[in-house]
UniProtKB/TrEMBL annotation:
Residues 1-26 form the signal peptide. It holds the Pfam family EF-hand_5. Residues 176-190 form the EF-hand domain. The lineage of its organism: Eukaryota, Metazoa, Spiralia, Lophotrochozoa, Mollusca. The gene is ORF111229. This is EF-hand domain-containing protein. It comes from Arion vulgaris.
Length: 212
């Protein structure tokens, strides 16, 4: 895999890989929206940006996976069965079961939750931002067209079937125009990204401490 693709994946992972976990014992998140300013103060943010120790674009290997697991345990401190719940969360985050957690795992979770319309199956939320769009928009014209759009499809195919990835790209491209390209506005619209947001930690943030 060339360095450009790795850099793209790493940047997207570091910017997007944030999950939210309810800190009360035995509960799962049953939230139908992806707020930028969560009103529920019992929610904690797990920022995974420092867990990619070797900067390969993924949380992988024994050391990094254990660091992620410990990160979740710390966030769940004081709740019942926090160690078992943390193990389950880490396992479920590896969507394609390749023993590493990359950007595609997080975006796959987001897309599944978006499609399920409230019938959530994972105990956390993923908040995408525009970093992926910025990385793919190589000529900086504010549009993903031709090869750039194909690269978006390739990125999605890392964790999704080809037909699913293709339909998602087509759905994004057809929201606001008919020229086949994907504008920043369409990208934001599809992923529910606030127009002023540049990262998942912008605007008001939930408590990052071990307890709300």
């Amino acid at each position: 895999m060339d360095s450009t693709v790795l850099d793209k994946r790493r940047t997207f992972l570091l910017a997007c890989a944030c999950v939210f976990v309810r800190s009360c014992a035995g509960a799962s998140l049953h939230t139908t929206v992806l707020p930028t300013s969560p009103s529920n103060n019992s929610r904690l943010m797990l920022d995974t940006s420092d867990l990619d120790l070797n900067k390969d674009g993924c949380i992988s290997g024994k050391e990094e996976m254990e660091a992620f697991r410990q990160h979740v345990i710390n966030a769940l401190a004081g709740s019942e069965n926090s160690v078992l719940r943390a193990h389950s969360i880490v396992h479920r985050t590896d969507v394609n079961r390749d023993n590493k957690i990359c950007w595609c795992d997080f975006i796959s979770i987001y897309l599944h939750e978006k499609a399920s319309r409230g019938k959530h199956s994972v105990p956390f939320l993923v908040l995408p931002d525009t970093v992926m769009f910025t990385q793919l928009d190589q000529n900086k014209d504010g549009q993903l067209a031709d090869d750039e759009k194909e690269r978006l499809k390739t990125e999605l195919e890392s964790c999704l079937p080809h037909s699913h990835a293709e339909s998602i790209v087509d759905a994004i491209a057809s929201q606001l125009n008919t020229d086949g390209s994907i504008s920043l506005e369409e990208f934001q619209e599809f992923f529910n990204i606030p127009k002023m947001a540049t990262s998942p930690t912008s605007s008001s943030e939930p408590d990052k401490g071990n307890n709300p």
